[in-house]
Amino acid sequence: MALAVIIMAAGKGTRMQSDLPKVLHRANGRPLIDYVLDTAYSLDPEKIAIIVGHQAELVKKATARHRVTAVLQEPQLGTGHAIMQAETLLSDFDGDVLILSGDAPLVTIDTLQNMIAFHCFHRAAATVLTAELDDPTGYGRVIREKNSERVLKIVEHKDASEEERAIREINSGVYLFDTQLLFDALGKITTNNVQQEYYLTDVFGICFQNGKKVCAFKTENPNEILGINTTEQLMEAEQLLINSRK
Q1: pLDDT for 205-228, tens place per residue?
Q2: What phi, psi does 197 have (nearest 5°)?
Q3: DSSP assignment of 71-113, as one string?
Q4: Which residues, including other chains, have CB under 8 Å from residue 99's CB and lie 6 or more apart?
Q5: Any idea where the domains of the chain sit in the sequence?
Q6: How far apart are CA 161 and CA 82, in angstroms?
Q7: Which CATH class name applies to 3-244?
Q8: Terminal Cα-to-Cα distance of the chain (whole angstroms)
Q9: Which residues on adjacent β-strands are paired with residue 177?
Q10: 15 annotated active-site
Q11: What is the pTM of this model?
């Protein structure tokens, strides 16, 4: 299967209490995005795109030694809008695209390889990496067909019913899409929401409406899907990275 990777790296990271782009904060002496790039390279993709925005030149300079293409998101109008910026780069690409976050360095190569194999085996149009948390408060919930890999709905915590909030399987923000389906669906999403932004997760709604198969692949290690939004989370990630290499 032909593979491309898009790494989201445009965010400010306001809660880090620093003007430094979040993906350039260091864990054990290395920028967070370095770990994500190492993982992406190990998958041997045909193309890697980094979506840059806040302090774009700093991020481009920090990743210049890598074989990647930086794509500017300006202005920043949401996660869906970020991925739209890579459409031209991938216009001649026929395969699947893996979407990673530059501030989530703990996702392992093994998990992503297994997710890709799962996606191909089930002939999914889209696959979402999930995890089961003891306390899923605040995370989007993944609603599956009973005893199945197939996803029926992805709902944000604030929009979930009490029954849906009792589900502990959550959306990690790591996705694998058929490339043509992804950009076709992105062309149909709108900013008709409170934030007036293009949400990448709205693509799943279009998939469901059109009868496309969306699957969920669950990692057994929920630490893998931890993003970093605060200095406390950064310190936790540093220790987890050390432990993962022992």
Answers
A1: 999 999 999 999 999 999 999 888
A2: -125, 165
A3: EE--S---HHHHHHTTTTTTTT--SEEEEEETT-TT--HHHHH
A4: 5, 6, 8, 83, 173, 174, 175, 176, 177, 200
A5: 3-244
A6: 29
A7: alpha beta
A8: 32
A9: 97, 126
A10: yes
A11: 0.95
